[in-house]
Amino acid sequence: MKQSKYNFFYDFPDQEEKKLAYNALTNSLALMDQEHYTQYYNFASNNITIEDEKFIDDLKMGGYIIEDEMDELKLLELQLFQNRFNRSVLGLTIAVTADCNFRCTYCYEKNSIENTKMNQDVQDNIIQLITDQANGLKVLAVTWYGGEPLLMINVIRDLSERIQKICDENQITYFAYMVTNGYLLTREIALDLKDKLNIQGMQITLDGPEDIHNKRRPLAGGQGTFQKILNNLKENIDVLPSVSIRINTDIDNQDRISEVFQVLKDNDLAEKVNVYLGHVEALNDGYVTCKCLTPEGFSQAYYDFMKENKLDIKKLYPRRFTNYCGADAVNSFVVGADGNLYKCWNDIGIQEKLIGKLPMEGVVDNFKLYSDYLLYDPTKDERCTECKLLPVCMGGCPNRRLLGVENCNHTKYVLEEYLQACAHSIIEERMG
After folding, report:
1. What is the dihedral of CA 192, 196, 200, 206, to 10 degrees?
2. 93, β-bridge pairs
3. Are 284 and 106 in contact (CB under 8 A)?
4. What pLDDT, on the 0 to 100 scale, is given for residue 284?
5. How would DSSP label each residue in 129-164?
6. Residues with Cβ < 8 Å from 100, sequence gap 6 or more?
7. What tens digit of pLDDT does each residue of 251-304 get?
8. Over the range 161-181, which residues count as b (16 or more CB within 10 Å of their CB) and which as e?
9. Which Gene Ontology molecular-function terms are recorded (predicted)?
10. Cβ atoms 384, 392 nearer than 8 A
11. Which residues 6+ apart lie within 8 Å of 379 measured at CB?
């Protein structure tokens, strides 16, 4: 037996006689008393045999010790490519329009906003793409995107009906999600989202209290949007699918993000939505770097926000990745309103990031970019192979990697605080 290379051990202030043990490969978290930690340490450092069979079984179960022949990097590589090249799942991010009723200051798409709406030919080509794969599919996951997707709600209605019919006929499990600014979220639309369009979740952004949000996320004409979005949520939360409120965070608003949560509490919404922070970055020349938080700064701001507002810290518990997202999955595509195909939604509207156009002919147009997304192997990357957090990062965001931007998982910077807080929360729950 040998120790896993992905073990972390920290002091646990709540119980000073114990150690907090975490394994990034299995995502195991455990409290280890000092006597057992000493046994483990002597085994790991001096190859002294552990005599306690029950303790050995517990260490094996958590992945803290493994068989001598186990190569954890090879295991990660195998799991990565199994998932990356899995064709039983089709992921489509569908931008039904390139237009938007907002002009957010930091939006990476703002330089490509145009009055392009998805025509019937593109819709038919999307249906053909799904139909061509239907026989071998087990799961279809669609994200409705833009621009602002609710500007084209009728296209979403029509496509959803046709897509769900294909899924029903072929026993395909269908998931749908929507990213919207929430400004056009009428009662009629809200009622349709879950019941008719089978949308399970949606993301809406509020970037601060009213004065901050309105400066950052105004209408195209400059008018504020905060109150309209808030009223739409209040009036429709009873019928909406699961709602996540994203707070895009940078230097300009980091000191006031907790006021968003207070507004939600004041309006009886805090317990009905999931609130999380988004890291504003200077992608595609959409924003100025000097206004962006460093990864370390964002990580600390996120942790402080969760603690200050007494939110469930377990939501920040580090999770395993295989492939990172749709950008590095072979059967995942972003479809622009004009039928252009991309691998990442950050690439929408950038001509040199095109990988093809519907209808698909089986050959990509930008093979170098395509292969850069799909053939990167973090288990062969010198920057990653020695990192003990590789299983919960797997090289990080593919788009940021290609842009040469700092790419480590934000968990890295406050891992000890996250794990201690998660363990404390679990203990409190078990004690009732």
Report:
1. -20
2. 143, 334
3. no
4. 58
5. HHHHHGGG-SEEEEEEESS-GGGGHHHHHHHHHHHH
6. 107, 109, 113, 146, 147, 148, 151, 181, 220
7. 999 999 999 999 999 999 999 999 999 998 866 565 666 788 888 999 999 999
8. ebbbebbeebebebbbbbbbb
9. 4 iron, 4 sulfur cluster binding; metal ion binding; oxidoreductase activity
10. no
11. 73, 74, 76, 77, 80, 385, 390
Helix (H) or strand (E) holding 212: helix 210-216
CB atoms within 10 A of CB 21: 24
Sequence-ordered list of residues with C-beta below 8 angstroms from that of 165, at least 6 positions apart, any chain: none
User: CA geometry: angle at 409 spanning 405 and 414, to 5°?
Assistant: 120
At 112, the pLDDT band (50, 70, 90 cuts) reads low
> Do residues 391 and 405 touch, judged by C-beta distance below 8 A?
no
Tokens of 238: 């009873």
Summarize pLDDT for 323-344 with one digit per residue, the tens: 999 999 999 999 999 999 999 9
Q: Are 140 and 167 in contact (CB under 8 A)?
A: yes
**Strand stretches in 206-283, DSSP E:** 242-249, 274-279
In this predicted structure, the answer to whether residue 374 has a pLDDT above a threshold of 60 is yes
Residue-level length of the chain: 432
Q: Of 195, 183, 254, which Cα lies nearest the Cα of 219?
A: 183
Beta-carbon count within 10 A of 266 CB: 10
| Distance between CA atoms of residues 298 and 409, nearest Å | 11
Looking at every residue in the chain, the average pLDDT score rounds to 93
Spatial CB neighbours of 238, under 8 Å, sequence gap ≥ 6: none
Is 120 buried (19+), middle (13-18) or exposed (0-12) by CB count in 10 A?
exposed
- Tell me whether residue 30 is exposed, middle or buried, using C-beta atoms within 10 angstroms of its C-beta: 0 to 12, 13 to 18, 19 or more: middle
